[in-house]
């Protein structure tokens, strides 16, 4: 079967989207399930829509929509999950569970931006933060949180005796 040049680009874009989690989730087998998928070559993105579930080992994400964006070399540059996003990220040091209305992930620097009723819980160290916007670095565990006068930032942790 011969592919046109446009067909080859679309194939690479779709294949890249299906394999995108190699950087995101440390290179193991990734499973993406959704009600629909749409690849847009001109925008260099693939959208997974409706009950999106991404899983790899013990790391997972659920959302209504996930958009995977690519650069000019068809390398993954960003993932954006929208609508009731919940996730779990497991690193060597910690397990993080979080939720927000929107989560943007940059796989090159392993950073997350959560917005809209955002919260992250570090299960391993019994800490929890919440606010309107959270910038989270998965490599270092660092976080910056923004609140507002009606919903201030919250930080909850357990005290040792």
Short synopsis of the structure:
The chain is mainly beta and 161 residues long. Helices cover 11% and strands 56% of the residues. It is globular.
The topology string of helices and strands comes to HHEEEEEEEEEE
Q: Distance between the terminal alpha carbons, to the nearest Å?
A: 69 Å
- Helix % is 10-25%
Write out the CATH superfamily name: Lipopolysaccharide (LPS) transport protein A like domain
User: How many beta-strand elements?
Assistant: 10
Please compute the radius of gyration using only Cα atoms: 17 Å
**CATH topology, anyone?**
lipopolysaccharide transport protein A fold
The major pleated sheet works out as:
10 strands, antiparallel
Rounded average pLDDT: 78
Q: Oligomeric state of the chains?
A: single chain
Provide an overview of this structure.
- The chain has 161 residues and is mainly beta.
- It has a single domain, classed as Lipopolysaccharide (LPS) transport protein A like domain (lipopolysaccharide transport protein A fold), CATH 2.60.450.10.
- It has helices at residues 5-18, 21-24, and strands at 31-33, 36-40, 45-56, 59-70, 76-90, 95-106, 111-122, 127-137, 143-146, 154-157.
- Strands 1, 2, 3, 4, 5, 6, 7, 8, 9 and 10 form a 10-stranded antiparallel beta sheet that branches.
- The chain starts with a helix and ends with a strand.
- Mean pLDDT is 78; it is low at 1-26.
List keywords for this structure.
lipopolysaccharide transport protein A fold, 11% helix, ten-stranded antiparallel beta sheet, 161 residues, 2 helices, mainly beta, single chain
């Amino acid at each position: 079967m011969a592919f046109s040049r446009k067909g080859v680009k679309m194939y690479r874009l779709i294949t890249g989207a299906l394999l995108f989690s190699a950087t995101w989730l440390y290179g193991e087998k990734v499973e993406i399930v959704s009600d629909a998928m749409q690849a847009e070559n001109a925008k260099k993105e693939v959208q997974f829509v409706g009950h999106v579930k991404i899983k790899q080992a013990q790391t997972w994400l659920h959302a209504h929509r996930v958009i995977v964006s690519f650069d000019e070399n068809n390398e993954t540059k960003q993932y954006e999950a929208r609508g009731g996003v919940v996730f779990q990220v497991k690193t060597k040091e910690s397990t993080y569970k979080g939720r927000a209305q929107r989560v943007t992930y940059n796989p090159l620097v392993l950073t997350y931006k959560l917005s809209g009723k955002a919260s992250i819980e570090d299960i391993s160290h019994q800490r929890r933060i919440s606010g309107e916007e959270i910038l989270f670095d998965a490599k270092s565990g660092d976080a910056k949180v923004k609140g507002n006068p009606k919903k201030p930032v919250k930080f909850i942790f357990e005290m040792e005796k």
